[in-house]
Amino acid sequence: MIATALTGFFTAFSLILAIGAQNAFILRQGLLRQHVFALCLLFALSDAILITLGVAGFGWLVTLSPRFPDIMAMGGAVFLIFYGASRFWAAFKGNHDLGRAKGAGAGLWPTLLMGLALTWLNPHVYLDTLGLIGAVSSQYIAPLEKLVFGLAAISASFVFFFSLGYGARFLAPVMQTVRAWRILDALIGVVMLMIAFGLVTSIL
């Protein structure tokens, strides 16, 4: 069972580790120290739902409609392009630093809605959870083994997101200038556009 748990944990952790839309967003909120707990919980619970579906054998949902992956990819790409553009605009304006930004960001509900969009409009999330994690779990036949694998994978999501969200504050000393925030926003914008480009090219 230990081997099963380790496989589940490190499979999920390695998939989440890749820099993506969720990670970039939670890093920024962690630096601002705004709604960090709620956002980490939202991302982790969303992953938990999808991982549970994948391990339980619902990966077939993705294959019910041949057009479903393409529709998700295009919708996610459009959203990421707009979000990336907003970060480039913030970098261009450059009118904030960490000191001024604290307490001046979006409210809780707008932040959570953005988090929901970055999660549930991202086809990569479905590929990683319903697809890849679900596929890896298929090697385990016994219900107890599947349960251990799934719980370990879910725990990896909680560990990663909360570590990233609360660990981001250690970068605060280097984020005290407008220039630093311009660089961060520009990098986030680049990441969003790269992900969007990848989604578009995957369906062409």
Verbal overview:
It is a single chain. By secondary structure, the protein is mostly helical. The protein has one domain. The chain contains 9 helices and no strands. Helix 1 (2-17) crosses helix 8 (143-167), helix 2 (21-32) runs antiparallel to helix 3 and helix 2 packs antiparallel against helix 9. The longest helix is centred in the middle third of the chain and has 26 residues, at 68-93. It is globular, with a radius of gyration of 18 Å. Mean pLDDT is 80; it is low at 97-104.
Number of helical regions? 9
The strand count comes to: 0
Q: In percent, how much strand structure appears in the residues?
A: under 5%
Class of secondary structure makeup? mainly alpha
Percent helix range: over 70%
What's the shape?
A: globular
Round the Cα radius of gyration to an integer and report it: 18 Å
Major β-sheet annotation:
none
**In angstroms, what separates the terminal alpha carbons?**
42 Å
Following the backbone from N to C, one meets helices and strands in this order, namely HHHHHHHHH
The average pLDDT is: 80
Could you say how many structural domains there are in total? Answer: 1
Which residue ranges are poorly predicted, with pLDDT under 50 across at least 5 consecutive positions?
A: 97-104
